[in-house]
Design brief:
about 290 residues, 2-enoyl-CoA Hydratase, Chain A, domain 1, 7-stranded mixed beta sheet, about 15% strand, disordered N terminus, ATP-dependent Clp protease proteolytic subunit, ClpP/TepA
Length: about 290
Amino acid sequence: MAKHELRVFAKARPGAMPLPASRAVSALTKPQVFDKWSADAAGIRPTAIEQGDNIITMFDVIGEDFWSGGGITAKKVSAQLRAIGDRPVEVQINSPGGDMFEGIAIYNVLREHSQPITVKVMGMAASAASIIAMAGDTIEIGAASFIMIHNCWVLAMGNRHDMRETADFLEPFDQAMVDVYAQRSGSEAADVAKWMDDETFMSGSMAIERGFADALLNADEVKVDENAQARDRQVNEVRALELELVSAGHTRTEARARINKIKGTPGAALNEATPGAGADWSGLSGLLATLQS
């Protein structure tokens, strides 16, 4: 569908979202979402070689990433906004999400910017990244790109009382996300809540139809960087495996130690200066598939 065939309508950015008083609980992206991002969106980058100095790129997980040393954080975004100053901002997103509460913090930082913000979903804005996308005064999305929304997903352990406490803790954050998605899209809150319950992936045209985006990106604005795609997929296997091990009852520290024992060190697949660099992490995909089955 051509861009001129779609109605373009920018909406006001919704209000601020709450952050937890305690960050002891982390709301994360499910391993299966990492898999879909690897299959459908890894390596998607803007076509333009030169980037303007008012562009913030988010081509990574949300929150600090143990495995690559990267990750998109509110602290980094705040520093970038200070450097840009009182000017319009473009935010380019291709992210499977990550730490939901870090995503909320980034959303709040962006919505406080004094000038218009244009968000471009280059590949995928899933989970926490979809919250960040809602900070845009204008949201553009690729025809083959996706916005994914779901309820807060956490890894919790304990008895039934602990589980009830965790559910009660998460409920206001799910409701806050419903409110933001509904306000930005113009959709009914009950519909948004159902889409979140169903863990919904919206294609470019569906996102526009439902009000989660305003217009399609031109097809020539995005490309697949094969080198970036290989790096994205490699480290994503490790991220997904870590979450699967935690889901099986290990702590994150234990999961990371087990993965490191199998192959390499944190960042080994991404940084040639790291001991073990160049190690083949691809064998972990078989272990991941076994755990998921």
